[in-house]
Amino acid sequence: MENNTNFRRFSGATLMILGVVIVLFALVAFLSDGKPVLGMSINKAESAAPFIVGMIFLITGVNLVRES
After folding, report:
1. Which residues are listed as membrane-spanning (predicted)?
2. HEC profile for the chain?
3. In sequence order, what are the beta bridge partners of 40?
4. Average pLDDT for residues 51-56, to the nearest whole number?
5. Which domain holds residue 58?
6. Domain count, the chain
7. Nearest by Cα to 26 from 59, 58, 1, 49
C-alpha cells in the first residue's frame, strides 16, 4: 500500500512541476507581444491553450498529492 502512495505523490509532484512550468511559459508568451519565446512565435490567442493544459496538470498534481 505504501508503494502506491509513494508513486501517487511522485506523480503528483511531477505533474505540479510540469503544470507550473507550462503556465509560466503561457504567461510569458502572453506578455511577449508577438516576439518569439523559446524559439516559438505565439500570439495572445494561442497562449490560452498552454495555459489551460498547464492548469489541468497543476490541479491534477495538487489533488494527487493531497489525497495520498
Report:
1. 12-32, 47-65
2. CHHHHHHHHHHHHHHHHHHHHHHHHHHHHHHCCCCCECCECCCCCCCHHHHHHHHHHHHHHHHHHHHC
3. 37
4. 94
5. 2-67
6. 1
7. 49
Residue 31 and residue 44: Cα distance in Å, rounded? 8
Q: Are the CB atoms for 47 and 16 separated by under 8 Å?
A: no
- For residue 50, count other CB atoms closer than 10 A to its CB: 19
Which amino acid would we find at residue 58? L
Q: What is the CA radius of gyration of the chain?
A: 15
| Residue that the C-alpha cell 502572453 belongs to | 30
Question: Has residue 50 got a pLDDT over 80?
Answer: yes
